[in-house]
Amino acid sequence: MEIQNKRMSDDEFNAIRAQVLTQWPTGKEVDLQESIDFHKKLPKNKIFSLKLKEAKDKRITLVQPRAGVALIKEHIELLTYLQDKGGADLLPTTIDSYTRQNRYEEAENGISESIKSGKSMLNGFPAVNHGVNGCRQIIESLNVPVQMRHGTPDARLLAEIGFAGGFTSYEGGGISYNIPYAKSVLLEKTILDWQYCDRLAGVYEEAGISINREPFGPLTGTLVPPCISHAVAIIESLLAAEQGVKNITVGYGQCGNLVQDVAAIGTLEELTEEYLHKYGYNDVVVTTVLHQWMGGFPQDEAKAFGVISWGSSVAALSKATKVIVKTPHEAMGVPTMEANAQGLRCTKQVISMLGDQTLTAAGLEQEKRIISEETRCIVDKCFELGSGDIALGAVRAFQAGVIDVPFAPSRYNAGKMLPARDNNGAIRILNAGAVPLSKELLDFNKDMIEERAKFEKRKASFQMVIDDVYAISKGRLVGRP
Ligand SMILES: CC[C@H]1O[C@@H](n2cnc3c(N)ncnc32)[C@H](O)[C@@H]1O
């Protein structure tokens, strides 16, 4: 399967589209021109990219939850509650796991089971089964923009129905919804499928309808060095821009050291814009999203609010355009709407108290330099591996272990690079594997881990990685011996 970072031709796009729309009966409801006309009638307050652009210009941080239940009426009740009682600036529709695996039959069963039992038997909203009109009922019932959030390797039909249904933002990407989410799905396949989704967004864009795209930043959410998640975000931004996407939110999962996390958000926006401009995409609006702590959560709700507050501080101090909010039920599973709204109000409280402050810390500039240089080592190597083509380069980078996502389930991920925290909890690289960092950068990472080894009176080793993974469940950041 030849892969290249080239805008899909109309013939190629239409040929794929004809097949995609047959994958489930609701595909027949999609009429592109009618959908574009529907979007044109949407009021400005329902358009995701406008609200993000305004937040970027005002340097404020918007709050957005995750939320999704099986049935339309209950999903509207949930989102309305989060909008009115939680103060959500932006709303999600989190898609259920069956739909993410294109298992629409089982999603259909989940709907009928939910009707029968009177409670949601799915862990999200089965948008494909509810179809275009089902999605439009959501959009028409709310006052703020709504984004489709999921984890779908083949998200083409979901995009067709979501865009036609009035969603004005779509999360995911050919790398970020494959490597952390799937075990054996070819990267070439998901990059191609997501070029389709981005091309569809480009078609709406060319009709004057702005669709925001958001690569999934945190990846596995477990000790992912900023340079790794940044490299994926930048590559997916370049792939999306080539297909005509004009509004991109790049993301990052909070890792735990305040200076590193603030430096990560700042460099993410700068580097994404740098690479978009370097490769000729000068009309793309770039914003950022911080995902509150993606690791394990304490069961105790008071402690959970502590973790949520900490993530909110990072979002505010890093001036992230948007923060994805966790809930005090994180350790239990799908939250109640009350708990979800509490997470939002807790976050808004911290942001409003910190919103006028910026972090000027010793080491912040150094951290930004380190993250930028590490990220450039990786992305530039990808271009080299692809002889200038970043799609081909990305595939070859994973094959060579140049991009290596820690703890990823995908068999196409090398899994050789080992991260560990330094003595301040910042994520460093213990063993680079084939990640092509310069000697200076390798030495920096080694020295920072050595500092911890000396403090802990033990050798730097794989045991540190294990201790760091388990530290979270003990309410710690650094896995002390
Ligand atoms: C990326 C993983 C995150 O998505 C969250 N999540 C998944 N499904 C839902 C859901 N249906 N409602 C609220 N949060 C959800 C989950 O708690 C975790 O924090």
From TrEMBL:
GO terms for molecular function: cobalamin binding; methylaspartate mutase activity. It catalyses: (2S,3S)-3-methyl-L-aspartate = L-glutamate. InterPro entries: Cbl-dep_enz_cat, Glu_mut_E, Glu_mut_E_C_dom_sf. Pathway: Amino-acid degradation; L-glutamate degradation via mesaconate pathway; acetate and pyruvate from L-glutamate: step 1/4. Its EC number is 5.4.99.1. One of its GO terms (biological process) is anaerobic L-glutamate catabolic process. Heterotetramer composed of 2 epsilon subunits (GlmE) and 2 sigma subunits (GlmS). GlmE exists as a homodimer and GlmS as a monomer. Belongs to the methylaspartate mutase GlmE subunit family. This is Glutamate mutase epsilon subunit. The gene is glmE.
